Amino acid sequence: MSKPHEDDDDYESIEGRVFFQEMHGRKINLINPTYLLPADEDESKRFNLMHRLIRFIFNGRIYVGPTKEVLQFGPYRQALDLGTGRGEWAVELCEEFSWVFTTGVDIVPIQYLEVPERCRFEMWDINIHHMPYTDGCFDLVHARAVLTGIRNYPHFLGQIGRILRPGGLVLLIEPSLMQYAGLANNKPEAAYTSGSGPRGWFTLWETYRRCLSMLGVDVTVPQHLKDLLEGTRLFEDIQDFKATIPVGFYHENKGILTVGQLQWMAYDLLLPALKPMFMSLGMLESRADRIIKDAQTDLYYGNSDFKLASHMHIVHARRNSIPWS
Ligand SMILES: C[S@@+](CC[C@H](N)C(=O)[O-])C[C@H]1O[C@@H](n2cnc3c(N)ncnc32)[C@H](O)[C@@H]1O
């Protein structure tokens, strides 16, 4: 597998299309004004950390649920990865299932340049009203950590229902935008209440959620994925799971400790990545720097009474046989 496009001097413009703009010191996509997280080397590192974290919580796999079942009985099966990022999931699925063709979609060309012949990448905005595929043409649709670029998640799910064949599988994975404190000294996990715990950490997350809401993102989607799938009436066998992810180096179980380390490293990269979003929504640079620095202090030095934790929401469901209309 070759390196992603970022190392290519000429990546800014492909066939005359320009994909990036410089915003407050980071490279941001030009196509989707809702998605204000960077598209640069540090963000690619963060995607890779999250990819590895999810492999840990899926016991070494990149999928859960009846994925093998929907992909069996080839000879050709089609999978789609919406908001593919570096394209790791799309490439690895191809490598694991030698009869599967995968398509990865993103707004920026940051994918690997050399990939299996059965894997291809397309550039378009998945907020589009009508995804450019015929009804029922995919066996599997995967969308992981894309919520922050989606303006109308129920419509997005409706389009996934349209392009999945009856019996096809959707797999959605979204990190919660809420953060939790607890786990230390056997205290039960609890959502932060004002005035307690690592204030800098929670102020940053409140600010992040407020910015996303201003950009038109429904920040409550992760915890409601199952209800939203049910609301489309296009899915059955809907299964949802919530993984609690420790943030940092404190868990006694070795496997979970690794998950906590990966999450900590990913958040270390996320914090400065939020600055362009904060500033482009009108925040003064000094205030953005202060919010990020206070959150970094809580992340780096912690607090003996409070341990940080986050949630990962995972849902899979089969397309039912009700025609799409
Ligand atoms: C947090 S990354 C996750 C990448 C990948 N799914 C993964 O889990 O490694 C979100 C990705 O979604 C892409 N994205 C965000 N909004 C999008 C949109 N409306 N259409 C297409 N891609 C989008 C971003 O460019 C970014 O690569």
UniProtKB/TrEMBL annotation:
SUPFAM superfamilies: S-adenosyl-L-methionine-dependent methyltransferases. It comes from the Eukaryota. One of its GO terms (biological process) is methylation. The keyword Cell membrane does not apply. GO terms for molecular function: methyltransferase activity. Pfam families: Methyltransf_23. Keywords: Methyltransferase, Transferase. This is Demethylmenaquinone methyltransferase. It comes from Mycena sanguinolenta.
